[in-house]
Write a structure and sequence with these properties.
Helices cover 30% and strands 17% of the residues. The chain has 241 residues and is α/β, with parallel strands linked by helices. Helix 1 packs across helix 2. The protein has a single domain, classed as 3-Layer(aba) Sandwich (Rossmann fold), CATH 3.40.50.1360. The radius of gyration is 17 Å and the shape is globular. The structure holds fructose -6-phosphate. Residues 35-39, 66-67, 132-134, 138-140 line the site of fructose -6-phosphate.
Length: 241
């Protein structure tokens, strides 16, 4: 792992955006893996600036998002689909037909999961994947468990994840309890991975990811086995290393 400690969230956003921009400039038809949550926002803002400045064009870029809640429609203001349009897709020149966010809508949600992995494979796989990390070490919605789940699947969200996401809803009861998420295998197949963690609340998870055993109880620890991972941290998130 290439670990970079940066001065603040804006410099992390700029550094991560530079890696995505370089990928796009080298391969305008590349496939991006994208994340939601608070962590990626400075990166998306920096990418929007690069697009506005004419330095990067998303014209032929395709993207796949990591995850989506089960049980709320795409049009819901807290769906990850809405989040991505609000914070990135509607603000750069990416084609709406070229973006995919998991859509758990069939009567058999497993069909949606299989179809999502097939779509990623058909696109040639993910060239560069952006990740945040949960307080419990989750990546995407792969929560601590006994074995690393391979492909895209449906998960029950843990109490700690529901609690962390309550800030976006009126109350904990409104937070969806299930999600459709790329699996650990789907993420590990990405050719390169950029993980960002900021704030003291992420310090324990960052320590377990980098210094701990590779263990599905800290899903992010699997990244120790990936050949091309860059981790951007601020001083607080790096404080236990
Ligand atoms: C979001 C995702 C999650 C978040 C993680 C951190 O698509 O996959 O794993 O990256 O929960 O969330 P924030 O960035 O809000 O702290």
């Amino acid at each position: 792992m290439n670990i970079q400690v940066c001065k603040d969230t804006n410099s992390i956003g700029k550094a991560a955006a530079t890696m995505f921009a370089a990928e796009i400039i080298n391969n305008p038809r590349c496939v991006l893996g994208l994340a939601t949550g608070s962590t990626p926002l400075p990166t998306y803002n920096a990418l929007i600036e690069l697009n506005d400045a004419g330095i990067v064009s998303f014209e032929t870029v395709r993207s796949f998002n990591l995850d989506e809640y089960v049980g709320i429609p795409r049009s819901h203001e807290q769906s990850y689909y809405s989040f991505m349009f609000e914070n990135l897709f509607s603000r750069v020149n990416i084609k709406p037909d070229n973006v995919q966010v998991p859509t758990p809508a069939s009567t058999d949600l497993n069909d949606d999961c299989v179809a999502y992995d097939a779509a990623i494979d058909a696109a040639g796989g993910i060239d560069i994947q952006l990740l945040g990390i949960g307080h419990n070490g989750h990546i995407a919605f792969n929560e601590p468990t006994e074995v690393f789940p391979f492909g895209t699947h449906i998960v029950d969200l843990t109490e700690s994840t529901i609690e962390a996401n309550t800030r976006f809803f009126d109350c904990a009861e409104d937070v969806p309890k299930k999600a459709m998420t790329m699996g650990i295998g789907s993420i590990m197949k990405a050719r390169s991975i950029v993980l960002i963690a900021t704030g003291a609340g992420k310090a324990e998870a960052v320590k377990a990811m980098i210094k701990g055993e590779v263990d599905p109880q800290c899903p992010a620890s699997v990244l120790q086995l990936h050949p091309n991972v860059t981790v951007f941290l601020d001083a607080e998130a790096a404080s236990l290393l």
